[in-house]
Design a protein that fits this description.
Length: 571
């Protein structure tokens, strides 16, 4: 073992290829031997190779990097990031950022918004004053009742997320699970954050407090993580274990893992209704998570249609309103709550669609996605990512619900002087500052114009890809869901995928898996960059293996010669 360790200690390390054991200064050597363990193998060979940033150039020896080494390493990384930022086209993230000059000062300040946004804290180095302003902005934009009033159950409550919508989904489902399980509401406690002795809720039927979750096959993978982490049964889990032969969509066959989607990627409302009715008829509370701008196809679930459908089904089985008793006797209490919960993952759409709706009302675009927000009385919770439509240097977002739906926090947080009603505990106070800065500098008019421009560029990109498909005589599987900023097409050669950071996903069409990529038209994307990508896709060998020649979008043979793309688009 000693001999092996000594051999590994000779592995070249750092920008000067110095053997690892010789990279230590005097204080790093204890008893004649380097402090810590040597590498078990060469990290350069162990990790994914990034050609633009050689691993050895950025390795951190115990002595650190001198000024020249640091300058070379940082320059390599900067050049790589700047190049990828310029060509970044495959994800629903905005790269058009402008914060450095105004907010660079705060990078040397620690801003921590620990605890409830609406309570003061002994941790005074925070940006809660800006967080509350940002939350009010979105409450108004999403047609919630504001400002937040802890005594008004219909007013909104929310907080700025340290993560993106994945945290909002996790928190929303956690709140939904406890609400549907009959656990105490926050309003049941005389002092926020002071949780009492929890009593088992009393209700009708053996399944009264056993929520079951539904989400579509186009839902972001964070929902699958969330239900696992929270031990929430999905309809697939429950159906497969308790009712293995009773799949209502196809009796006698295995239960589907997720609710089927339409071809465009929106949840199939009719099939959702069949599944919800099966469980509601057996007394299970219903938890539905919807997408408003699905990750790959950018599809918008019809939240209003789902809300109407789920409410009608739940009403038929007494789950629209039910009385939940907390414990027994004088110590117990009761409240009336619904037996269903609708959560919306609006990672991109909740930040973008309101402005596209404004643009439609102003005649700047023809259509906007369906209503998704608190105009719908049956919406329970909503989340959005700040780094997507607005654009921030790191992931962040907003979670929002109604005050009367809040669950009691786990316990008091005397140490910070405020109830910790959030998921993260310590929360990044810089994100509230970033969102405040962006919203302060972009009016509704500005954002409506930006939304219209993105919609027009998405339509242009879709048309150009269809024209390229005709020009090449190949079926490139080009598709765009209604009002989506995502345009998907056949996966091209690997170097093109990497250059433009195109997201890849296998999509099953007629039982066959197809390797797709998509391009996302975010605010930073230009027509010039779209045209540059199209020029690369036009070159021989751009798609490997090459699609069958002479086919068009439907797989049919081209009936006539096709015009060059520029001529085809002239009209």
């Amino acid at each position: 073992m000693v001999r092996e360790a000594e051999t590994h200690a000779d592995i070249p390390f750092g920008p000067e290829d110095t053997p690892w054991q010789k990279t230590f200064s005097s204080l790093g050597v204890v008893g004649g031997r380097p402090y810590g363990t040597p590498p078990s193998s060469d990290p350069r060979a162990a990790y994914l190779h990034v050609p633009e940033v050689p691993h050895y150039k950025v390795q951190l020896p115990p002595t650190g990097l001198d000024a020249q080494q640091y300058g070379e390493a940082e320059a390599l990384f900067r050049r790589h990031v700047d190049t990828q930022t310029r060509n970044f086209a495959g994800y629903q993230v905005t790269s058009d950022l402008d914060y450095e000059q105004r907010l660079g000062h705060y990078l040397n300040r620690h801003l921590n918004n620990v605890g409830d946004p609406y309570q003061s804290s002994s941790y005074t180095l925070n940006s809660k004053v800006l967080e509350r302003v940002v939350l009010d902005y979105f409450a108004s934009l999403w047609h919630a009742k504001w400002p937040h009033d802890p005594q008004d159950p219909e007013s909104y409550w929310g907080y700025v997320l340290t993560m993106g919508s994945s945290e909002g989904n996790l928190y929303g489902l956690w709140n939904a699970r406890d609400y549907l399980s009959g656990k105490p509401l926050r309003t049941h406690h005389r002092e926020p954050g002071q949780a009492g002795v929890e009593q088992a809720p009393q209700g009708d039927g053996p399944n009264a407090f056993h929520p079951v979750a539904f989400f579509s096959e186009d839902t972001h993978y964070s929902l699958t993580k969330a239900v696992r982490a929270l031990a929430i049964d999905t309809f697939h889990d429950l159906g497969s274990t308790r009712y293995p032969d009773d799949n209502p969509l196809a009796p006698g066959t295995p239960w589907p893992r997720k609710v089927p989607s339409t071809e465009d990627g929106a949840i199939d409302v009719e099939q959702l209704a069949v599944l919800v009715r099966f469980f509601a008829s057996r007394g299970y509370p219903i938890l539905v998570s919807l997408n408003y701008g699905s990750t790959f196809k950018g599809a918008y679930d019809d939240v209003e249609a789902v809300a109407r459908t789920v409410r009608a089904i739940c009403a038929a089985y007494g789950l629209d309103k039910r009385t939940v008793h907390q414990g027994r006797g004088e110590e117990g209490g009761q409240d009336e709550r619904s037996g269903f919960w609708l959560h919306v993952d609006g990672a991109l759409g909740a930040g973008y669609a309101p402005f596209l709706e404004m643009a439609r009302n102003a005649g700047m675009v023809e259509q906007a996605p369906p209503v998704f927000d608190f105009r719908l009385g049956d919406l329970h919770s909503l989340t959005m990512s700040g780094h997507k439509w607005m654009g921030t240097p790191w992931a962040c977002g907003v979670f929002m619900t109604r005050t009367g739906l809040q669950m009691a926090p786990p316990g008091a947080s005397e140490y910070i002087g405020a109830a910790d009603t959030t998921f993260a505990g310590s929360r990044n106070g810089f994100s509230s500052l970033l969102m405040w800065d962006y919203l302060a500098r972009h009016s509704y008019d500005d954002q409506a114009r930006l939304a219209a421009e993105c919609d027009h560029l998405a339509a242009y990109t879709h048309r150009q890809l269809l024209a390229l498909q005709e020009q090449l005589g190949h079926d490139l599987w080009v598709a765009r869901s209604p009002q989506s900023l995502s345009i998907r097409f056949r996966q091209p050669r690997a170097d093109i995928v990497r250059r433009y950071s195109l997201a890849s996903e296998s999509v099953h069409v007629d039982g066959t898996a197809r390797a797709y990529v998509h391009l996302y038209v975010m605010r930073h994307l230009t027509r010039e960059l779209v045209d540059e990508l199209l020029d690369e896709l036009r070159q021989p060998g751009a798609f490997t293996p090459a699609p069958p020649t002479g086919t068009t979008a439907g797989g049919a043979r081209a009936a006539r010669p096709v015009e060059p793309v520029a001529d085809a688009m002239a009209g």
